[in-house]
Model the fold of this input.
Amino acid sequence: MPLEEAKLVSTSSTSGRIIAAGIVIAFCYWAASVLVTLLVAVLLAYFLDPVVTFMEEWHIPRALGSLLVVLFTIAVMLLLTVFLIERADQFGADWPQYREPLHKIASTVQQKMSTFEEHVSEIGPSQVPVPGQTIVTVEPHPIRAAVIARLSSVYEIILAATFVPFLLFFMLAAKRQVWHATMQLFPSTRRTEVKETLTDVTQVLRSYVIGTALVGLVLVISSWILFWVMGLEFPFLLGLVSGLANLIPYLGVVLSWIPPMLIGLKQFHTAGPFIGIFGALTVLHLVTANLLIPALVGWRVRLNALALTVSILFWGWLWGGAGLILAVPITAVIKVICDHNEDLQPVGRWLSA
Done:
Protein backbone atom coordinates (compact mmCIF):
# COMPACT_ATOMS: atom_id res chain seq x y z
CA MET A 1 0.00 0.00 0.00
CA PRO A 2 1.43 3.41 -0.95
CA LEU A 3 2.48 5.67 1.88
CA GLU A 4 -0.10 8.38 1.07
CA GLU A 5 -2.91 5.83 0.96
CA ALA A 6 -1.79 4.30 4.26
CA LYS A 7 -1.82 7.74 5.93
CA LEU A 8 -5.32 8.40 4.55
CA VAL A 9 -6.62 5.08 5.88
CA SER A 10 -5.03 5.72 9.29
CA THR A 11 -6.53 9.21 9.47
CA SER A 12 -9.97 7.92 8.47
CA SER A 13 -9.76 5.16 11.09
CA THR A 14 -8.82 7.65 13.83
CA SER A 15 -11.60 10.04 12.81
CA GLY A 16 -14.09 7.19 12.79
CA ARG A 17 -13.10 6.14 16.31
CA ILE A 18 -13.41 9.71 17.59
CA ILE A 19 -16.88 10.06 16.03
CA ALA A 20 -17.95 6.68 17.43
CA ALA A 21 -16.71 7.66 20.91
CA GLY A 22 -18.66 10.94 20.69
CA ILE A 23 -21.82 9.06 19.71
CA VAL A 24 -21.39 6.64 22.61
CA ILE A 25 -20.84 9.49 25.12
CA ALA A 26 -23.87 11.37 23.78
CA PHE A 27 -25.99 8.22 24.07
CA CYS A 28 -24.80 7.63 27.65
CA TYR A 29 -25.73 11.23 28.51
CA TRP A 30 -29.19 11.29 26.99
CA ALA A 31 -30.09 7.75 28.09
CA ALA A 32 -28.65 8.21 31.59
CA SER A 33 -31.82 7.21 33.49
CA VAL A 34 -32.25 4.01 31.46
CA LEU A 35 -28.58 3.00 31.62
CA VAL A 36 -28.25 3.72 35.35
CA THR A 37 -31.40 1.67 36.05
CA LEU A 38 -30.06 -1.21 33.97
CA LEU A 39 -26.61 -1.12 35.62
CA VAL A 40 -28.09 -1.04 39.13
CA ALA A 41 -30.20 -4.10 38.26
CA VAL A 42 -27.12 -5.88 36.86
CA LEU A 43 -25.07 -5.21 40.01
CA LEU A 44 -27.91 -6.38 42.25
CA ALA A 45 -28.28 -9.51 40.13
CA TYR A 46 -24.59 -10.35 40.56
CA PHE A 47 -24.94 -9.77 44.31
CA LEU A 48 -28.07 -11.91 44.74
CA ASP A 49 -27.28 -14.68 42.24
CA PRO A 50 -25.33 -16.82 44.78
CA VAL A 51 -28.41 -16.83 47.04
CA VAL A 52 -30.65 -18.00 44.19
CA THR A 53 -28.09 -20.65 43.21
CA PHE A 54 -27.96 -21.89 46.81
CA MET A 55 -31.76 -22.17 46.91
CA GLU A 56 -31.67 -24.02 43.59
CA GLU A 57 -29.28 -26.58 45.10
CA TRP A 58 -31.97 -27.20 47.73
CA HIS A 59 -34.38 -28.15 44.92
CA ILE A 60 -36.23 -24.84 44.88
CA PRO A 61 -37.11 -23.88 41.27
CA ARG A 62 -34.97 -21.01 40.04
CA ALA A 63 -37.97 -18.86 39.10
CA LEU A 64 -39.51 -19.31 42.57
CA GLY A 65 -36.19 -18.69 44.30
CA SER A 66 -35.67 -15.53 42.24
CA LEU A 67 -39.14 -14.29 43.16
CA LEU A 68 -38.58 -14.93 46.87
CA VAL A 69 -35.20 -13.17 46.81
CA VAL A 70 -36.60 -10.14 44.96
CA LEU A 71 -39.58 -9.88 47.33
CA PHE A 72 -37.29 -10.14 50.37
CA THR A 73 -35.02 -7.44 48.94
CA ILE A 74 -37.99 -5.15 48.32
CA ALA A 75 -39.26 -5.72 51.88
CA VAL A 76 -35.84 -4.86 53.35
CA MET A 77 -35.58 -1.71 51.23
CA LEU A 78 -39.09 -0.62 52.24
CA LEU A 79 -38.36 -1.13 55.94
CA LEU A 80 -35.11 0.79 55.62
CA THR A 81 -36.87 3.58 53.72
CA VAL A 82 -39.60 3.88 56.37
CA PHE A 83 -36.97 4.02 59.12
CA LEU A 84 -34.99 6.69 57.30
CA ILE A 85 -38.14 8.74 56.69
CA GLU A 86 -38.97 8.62 60.40
CA ARG A 87 -35.44 9.74 61.29
CA ALA A 88 -35.59 12.49 58.69
CA ASP A 89 -38.95 13.70 60.10
CA GLN A 90 -37.46 13.85 63.58
CA PHE A 91 -34.47 15.77 62.23
CA GLY A 92 -36.87 18.17 60.48
CA ALA A 93 -38.74 18.75 63.73
CA ASP A 94 -35.46 19.58 65.47
CA TRP A 95 -34.22 21.74 62.59
CA PRO A 96 -34.78 25.11 64.37
CA GLN A 97 -32.21 24.04 66.96
CA TYR A 98 -29.63 23.41 64.21
CA ARG A 99 -30.54 26.52 62.23
CA GLU A 100 -29.26 28.95 64.86
CA PRO A 101 -25.57 27.83 64.86
CA LEU A 102 -25.67 27.52 61.05
CA HIS A 103 -27.09 31.04 60.83
CA LYS A 104 -24.26 32.34 62.99
CA ILE A 105 -21.64 30.64 60.81
CA ALA A 106 -23.28 31.93 57.63
CA SER A 107 -23.46 35.46 59.05
CA THR A 108 -19.79 35.38 60.01
CA VAL A 109 -18.78 34.14 56.55
CA GLN A 110 -20.97 36.74 54.86
CA GLN A 111 -19.47 39.51 56.98
CA LYS A 112 -15.94 38.40 56.10
CA MET A 113 -16.84 38.27 52.41
CA SER A 114 -18.37 41.74 52.56
CA THR A 115 -15.23 43.14 54.16
CA PHE A 116 -13.10 41.47 51.50
CA GLU A 117 -15.29 42.86 48.70
CA GLU A 118 -15.00 46.38 50.16
CA HIS A 119 -11.21 46.15 50.12
CA VAL A 120 -11.23 44.83 46.55
CA SER A 121 -13.58 47.60 45.40
CA GLU A 122 -11.15 50.16 46.82
CA ILE A 123 -8.39 48.75 44.62
CA GLY A 124 -10.40 48.45 41.39
CA PRO A 125 -11.90 51.28 39.33
CA SER A 126 -15.09 52.72 40.71
CA GLN A 127 -18.26 52.29 38.70
CA VAL A 128 -20.11 55.50 37.96
CA PRO A 129 -23.83 55.03 37.55
CA VAL A 130 -25.30 56.31 34.29
CA PRO A 131 -28.04 58.92 34.83
CA GLY A 132 -31.47 57.71 33.86
CA GLN A 133 -30.40 54.07 33.59
CA THR A 134 -32.51 51.64 35.57
CA ILE A 135 -31.42 48.05 36.06
CA VAL A 136 -34.24 45.64 36.75
CA THR A 137 -33.37 42.24 38.14
CA VAL A 138 -36.03 39.60 37.95
CA GLU A 139 -35.46 36.71 40.32
CA PRO A 140 -37.18 33.41 39.66
CA HIS A 141 -39.73 32.17 42.15
CA PRO A 142 -37.80 30.00 44.63
CA ILE A 143 -40.49 27.32 45.02
CA ARG A 144 -41.01 26.99 41.28
CA ALA A 145 -37.24 26.78 40.68
CA ALA A 146 -36.85 24.12 43.37
CA VAL A 147 -39.69 22.01 41.96
CA ILE A 148 -38.32 22.21 38.41
CA ALA A 149 -34.81 21.35 39.59
CA ARG A 150 -36.08 18.23 41.38
CA LEU A 151 -38.39 16.89 38.66
CA SER A 152 -35.60 15.09 36.81
CA SER A 153 -34.29 13.41 39.98
CA VAL A 154 -37.78 12.34 41.06
CA TYR A 155 -38.44 10.89 37.61
CA GLU A 156 -35.21 8.88 37.70
CA ILE A 157 -35.95 7.54 41.17
CA ILE A 158 -39.49 6.51 40.18
CA LEU A 159 -38.18 4.88 37.00
CA ALA A 160 -35.56 2.90 38.91
CA ALA A 161 -37.97 1.87 41.69
CA THR A 162 -40.47 0.65 39.10
CA PHE A 163 -38.24 -1.25 36.69
CA VAL A 164 -35.34 -2.51 38.83
CA PRO A 165 -37.39 -5.26 40.57
CA PHE A 166 -38.68 -6.59 37.23
CA LEU A 167 -35.25 -6.43 35.61
CA LEU A 168 -33.71 -8.10 38.65
CA PHE A 169 -36.24 -10.95 38.59
CA PHE A 170 -35.82 -11.61 34.87
CA MET A 171 -32.02 -11.54 35.14
CA LEU A 172 -32.02 -14.01 38.02
CA ALA A 173 -34.73 -16.34 36.72
CA ALA A 174 -33.55 -16.46 33.09
CA LYS A 175 -29.82 -16.40 33.75
CA ARG A 176 -29.00 -19.53 31.70
CA GLN A 177 -31.27 -18.55 28.80
CA VAL A 178 -29.77 -15.06 28.66
CA TRP A 179 -26.24 -16.49 28.77
CA HIS A 180 -27.01 -18.93 25.93
CA ALA A 181 -28.71 -16.23 23.83
CA THR A 182 -25.75 -13.90 24.35
CA MET A 183 -23.32 -16.53 23.11
CA GLN A 184 -25.41 -17.02 19.97
CA LEU A 185 -24.82 -13.37 19.03
CA PHE A 186 -21.18 -14.15 18.16
CA PRO A 187 -19.73 -16.45 15.50
CA SER A 188 -18.70 -19.92 16.62
CA THR A 189 -15.01 -19.11 16.11
CA ARG A 190 -15.13 -16.38 18.77
CA ARG A 191 -17.47 -17.94 21.34
CA THR A 192 -14.65 -19.36 23.44
CA GLU A 193 -13.03 -15.93 23.70
CA VAL A 194 -16.39 -14.30 24.47
CA LYS A 195 -17.12 -16.94 27.12
CA GLU A 196 -13.81 -16.28 28.84
CA THR A 197 -14.44 -12.52 28.73
CA LEU A 198 -17.94 -12.86 30.20
CA THR A 199 -16.65 -15.23 32.88
CA ASP A 200 -13.99 -12.70 33.92
CA VAL A 201 -16.57 -9.89 33.89
CA THR A 202 -18.80 -12.00 36.15
CA GLN A 203 -15.95 -12.65 38.58
CA VAL A 204 -14.92 -8.99 38.62
CA LEU A 205 -18.43 -7.66 39.21
CA ARG A 206 -19.29 -10.28 41.81
CA SER A 207 -16.02 -9.64 43.63
CA TYR A 208 -16.64 -5.90 43.55
CA VAL A 209 -20.30 -6.02 44.63
CA ILE A 210 -19.88 -8.55 47.46
CA GLY A 211 -16.63 -7.00 48.67
CA THR A 212 -18.07 -3.49 48.56
CA ALA A 213 -21.17 -4.63 50.46
CA LEU A 214 -19.01 -6.13 53.21
CA VAL A 215 -16.83 -3.02 53.37
CA GLY A 216 -19.93 -0.82 53.51
CA LEU A 217 -21.36 -2.91 56.34
CA VAL A 218 -18.13 -2.57 58.32
CA LEU A 219 -18.04 1.18 57.71
CA VAL A 220 -21.67 1.70 58.72
CA ILE A 221 -21.29 -0.31 61.94
CA SER A 222 -17.98 1.38 62.83
CA SER A 223 -19.39 4.86 62.19
CA TRP A 224 -22.56 4.01 64.13
CA ILE A 225 -20.53 2.89 67.16
CA LEU A 226 -18.30 5.97 66.93
CA PHE A 227 -21.22 8.42 66.86
CA TRP A 228 -23.05 6.52 69.61
CA VAL A 229 -19.97 6.67 71.89
CA MET A 230 -19.61 10.40 71.18
CA GLY A 231 -23.25 10.94 72.14
CA LEU A 232 -24.37 12.38 68.81
CA GLU A 233 -28.07 12.38 68.02
CA PHE A 234 -29.31 10.07 65.24
CA PRO A 235 -26.20 7.83 65.49
CA PHE A 236 -27.52 5.11 63.16
CA LEU A 237 -28.68 7.57 60.49
CA LEU A 238 -25.35 9.40 60.66
CA GLY A 239 -23.44 6.11 60.57
CA LEU A 240 -25.40 4.95 57.54
CA VAL A 241 -24.85 8.17 55.58
CA SER A 242 -21.19 8.59 56.55
CA GLY A 243 -20.37 4.92 56.08
CA LEU A 244 -21.87 4.75 52.59
CA ALA A 245 -20.28 8.07 51.63
CA ASN A 246 -16.89 6.64 52.59
CA LEU A 247 -17.27 4.06 49.80
CA ILE A 248 -16.79 6.79 47.18
CA PRO A 249 -13.06 6.94 46.41
CA TYR A 250 -11.29 10.17 47.43
CA LEU A 251 -14.48 12.26 47.74
CA GLY A 252 -16.06 9.93 50.29
CA VAL A 253 -13.94 10.97 53.23
CA VAL A 254 -14.91 14.64 52.75
CA LEU A 255 -18.60 13.80 52.32
CA SER A 256 -18.56 11.63 55.45
CA TRP A 257 -17.50 14.60 57.61
CA ILE A 258 -20.51 16.77 56.75
CA PRO A 259 -23.47 14.95 58.45
CA PRO A 260 -21.88 14.39 61.91
CA MET A 261 -20.38 17.89 62.00
CA LEU A 262 -23.75 19.38 61.07
CA ILE A 263 -25.47 17.52 63.90
CA GLY A 264 -22.60 18.34 66.25
CA LEU A 265 -23.21 22.09 65.85
CA LYS A 266 -26.17 21.75 68.20
CA GLN A 267 -24.44 19.62 70.84
CA PHE A 268 -20.78 20.69 70.87
CA HIS A 269 -19.45 24.17 71.52
CA THR A 270 -15.71 23.45 71.43
CA ALA A 271 -13.36 22.35 68.65
CA GLY A 272 -12.35 19.08 70.36
CA PRO A 273 -15.29 16.88 69.28
CA PHE A 274 -15.12 18.15 65.71
CA ILE A 275 -11.40 17.36 65.56
CA GLY A 276 -12.22 13.91 66.93
CA ILE A 277 -14.85 13.33 64.22
CA PHE A 278 -12.46 14.54 61.54
CA GLY A 279 -9.60 12.35 62.75
CA ALA A 280 -11.64 9.20 63.39
CA LEU A 281 -13.42 9.27 60.02
CA THR A 282 -10.15 10.01 58.21
CA VAL A 283 -8.41 7.07 59.88
CA LEU A 284 -11.41 4.86 59.12
CA HIS A 285 -11.28 5.91 55.46
CA LEU A 286 -7.52 5.24 55.22
CA VAL A 287 -7.89 1.79 56.80
CA THR A 288 -10.73 1.02 54.40
CA ALA A 289 -8.86 2.18 51.31
CA ASN A 290 -5.57 0.45 52.16
CA LEU A 291 -6.64 -2.70 54.02
CA LEU A 292 -10.33 -3.60 53.74
CA ILE A 293 -10.93 -2.90 50.06
CA PRO A 294 -7.77 -4.75 48.83
CA ALA A 295 -8.58 -7.71 51.11
CA LEU A 296 -12.34 -7.99 50.50
CA VAL A 297 -12.78 -6.65 46.98
CA GLY A 298 -9.74 -8.60 45.81
CA TRP A 299 -7.06 -8.32 43.18
CA ARG A 300 -9.52 -8.68 40.30
CA VAL A 301 -10.64 -5.04 40.54
CA ARG A 302 -7.20 -3.52 40.10
CA LEU A 303 -7.16 0.01 38.72
CA ASN A 304 -4.40 2.56 39.12
CA ALA A 305 -5.06 5.80 40.95
CA LEU A 306 -4.96 7.98 37.83
CA ALA A 307 -7.41 5.80 35.90
CA LEU A 308 -9.70 5.65 38.91
CA THR A 309 -9.64 9.43 39.38
CA VAL A 310 -10.31 10.14 35.71
CA SER A 311 -13.12 7.57 35.73
CA ILE A 312 -14.78 9.15 38.77
CA LEU A 313 -14.51 12.62 37.26
CA PHE A 314 -15.92 11.51 33.90
CA TRP A 315 -18.83 9.38 35.11
CA GLY A 316 -19.61 11.85 37.90
CA TRP A 317 -19.82 14.62 35.30
CA LEU A 318 -21.93 12.43 33.01
CA TRP A 319 -24.35 10.90 35.53
CA GLY A 320 -23.94 12.90 38.73
CA GLY A 321 -24.11 10.98 42.01
CA ALA A 322 -24.96 7.70 40.29
CA GLY A 323 -21.84 8.08 38.17
CA LEU A 324 -19.64 8.43 41.25
CA ILE A 325 -20.97 5.11 42.54
CA LEU A 326 -20.90 3.23 39.23
CA ALA A 327 -17.54 4.57 37.99
CA VAL A 328 -15.43 1.79 39.52
CA PRO A 329 -17.41 -1.24 38.23
CA ILE A 330 -17.80 0.32 34.78
CA THR A 331 -14.06 0.97 34.49
CA ALA A 332 -13.27 -2.50 35.83
CA VAL A 333 -15.48 -4.08 33.13
CA ILE A 334 -13.83 -1.91 30.45
CA LYS A 335 -10.43 -3.15 31.66
CA VAL A 336 -11.53 -6.80 31.38
CA ILE A 337 -12.80 -6.24 27.84
CA CYS A 338 -9.53 -4.53 26.90
CA ASP A 339 -7.50 -7.40 28.37
CA HIS A 340 -9.30 -9.90 26.11
CA ASN A 341 -9.01 -7.79 22.96
CA GLU A 342 -5.57 -7.85 21.38
CA ASP A 343 -5.89 -4.37 19.90
CA LEU A 344 -6.97 -2.88 23.24
CA GLN A 345 -4.57 -4.72 25.56
CA PRO A 346 -2.27 -1.64 25.90
CA VAL A 347 -5.28 0.27 27.26
CA GLY A 348 -5.97 -2.51 29.75
CA ARG A 349 -2.36 -2.50 30.91
CA TRP A 350 -2.49 1.29 31.35
CA LEU A 351 -5.65 1.05 33.46
CA SER A 352 -3.96 -1.34 35.87
CA ALA A 353 -0.40 -0.02 35.70
Q: What stands out?
A: Residues 191-230 form the longest helix (40 residues). Residues 135-144 have pLDDT under 50 and may be disordered. The radius of gyration is 26 Å. DSSP finds 13 helices and no strands in the chain.
